[in-house]
Amino acid sequence: MQLLGVDTWDEVVNLFQHDIRYAGHGGWLEVLRLIERGDSVYILADYSMWSGLYGAQKLFAGQLVEQNGQLLLQGLESEGFKGQTLSLDAALHNGGKYYWVERNQGPNGLIDANRMYYRLRFDWDQVDKDAVVGDTIGLAGNLGPPMMLSGMP
């Protein structure tokens, strides 16, 4: 959030839905949500499940690093991008149709650059716990007699 100059996640989502600089780039938001320092990001012009990552045309491949307080993608030597760096904003506007994320911790994956990825938030404080307990007791009361008649333990 600090990277984008906003304070809340709702403001971030709003940027990627309505701000001209970010709208239509929901996949990049997903990349930012997933990656941590040391993870690698491949910006791809195309992708085919038949050829996979290694058959895709790579526009850039870099590892997330922090330099002078700024997060950057530092080019991967193994992919031919040694000595190149991209700011995260420049990476967003690099023309990629897909991103491949290789994480040190967690699953790797393909991300569609133009798709908006939504996450459901569960706020336990908003749950009426008394109603849940009451419903559970009521359900047990309704299921108990038929289970006893059927001979189930």
Supply the key terms.
alpha+beta, six-stranded antiparallel sheet, 5 helices, 153 residues
Protein topology:
Layout: H1 9-18, H2 26-34, E1 40-44, H3 52-55, E2 58-67, E3 70-75, E4 85-87, H4 88-92, E5 98-102, E6 109-112, H5 129-150
Antiparallel strand pairs: 1-2, 1-5, 2-3, 3-4, 5-6
Q: In sequence order, what are the helices and strands, one letter per element?
A: HHEHEEEHEEH
Number of helices: 5
Largest sheet: 6 strands, antiparallel
Strand order of the largest sheet: 4-3-2-1-5-6
> Helical residue percent?
25-40%
Describe the structure.
This protein is of the alpha+beta class. It contains 5 helices and 6 strands. Strands 4-3-2-1-5-6 form a 6-stranded antiparallel beta sheet. The longest helix is centred in the C-terminal third of the chain and has 22 residues, at 129-150. The model has no long low-confidence stretch (mean pLDDT 82).
